[in-house]
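Fold it.
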Amino acid sequence: MPVKIMVPEMGESVVDARVRRWLKQAGDAVTVGEPLVELETDKVDVEVSASTSGVLATIAHAEGADVRIGDTLGTIDEVLGSGGPEVLGSKGPAVFATPSARREARERQVPLAAVKADGPRVTKADVVRSTGSTGATGSTGSARSETRERMSKRRATIARRLVEVQATAAMLTTFNEVDMSAVIALRERQKEAFKDRHGVPLGFSSFFVKASIAALREFPRLNAEIQGDDMVLKHYYDIGIAVGAAEGLVVPVLRDADGLSFPAIELAIREFATKAKDNSLSLDDLRGGTFTITNGGVFGSLMSTPILNPPQAGILGLHAIKERPVGVNGQVVLRPMMYTALTYDHRIVDGAEAVRFLVRVKELIEDPGVLLIET
């Protein structure tokens, strides 16, 4: 009897997907647990694996088709012999790899079976390392040539949500600047001991996570959301950390961040960045969040106005650190300064609250001793 290949449940907020690529063709032998097809959702890419060994009999939805949870993607015919399940025409053992690794291997014409993985799955970095170069692609033609590409599910969702939030929230942004001298000096004193003890460098992110949580305790409406006519105040702190990915910005979440130590925050953020690069973030990594921090400074941004991550009421934007002349005790001196921006939903957050929140973050960063005591 044919075994159906179904679109799996992928979390309560994911109801549809797009067939990105079939890894097997009709008539190919498959083994249980072997990836068959890549599905693209608005949050993460998902591989659907064979639930049984046999032959891929039918493909119901071709590449590029939109499908919903529970739809039948295709069928597998089980091939049974005297010794139980048997795979005919098998090309070798299944190779478990991230979608980005499979794409990279296909572009470089590298057999995945020949790539040595550093972890349980082959990643894009493993494929790049195996070829010894970063590779390059390009095209030639008229200077006025055009290329048309269908937006990915994630990019299309990002575009839709950005328009929706501007139409439904009363967004305003307030700015301030932070003297980073004290944090930089503290990091310089502690960087070697911190890395030796915890295996990860001490970055700026953990300071801003801690400062944001302290400020959110004082101004709780920035840790809230609107549901109908109600304002829901969150008494927990799930902090979203925006990171860049190939298909667009993603926001994995630090759960109960108020209970995390500096090393735990730095380790989690590094893991998020690695997963985003390898396209291996899970839906659980991305679900929820009560407040977001985004750092355009890693790309060189000096100042920007971040857009809310709905239904959240606040997002803190960090920027590049630049030496600027500032007045200190009647003298003009050069200091490493960072512009900060807070975008907030003015429907529930007053301007005075937003300004005072950002001032509180500034005070805590400029005096990290107080930050350590209060958090």
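The chain has nine helices and 19 strands.
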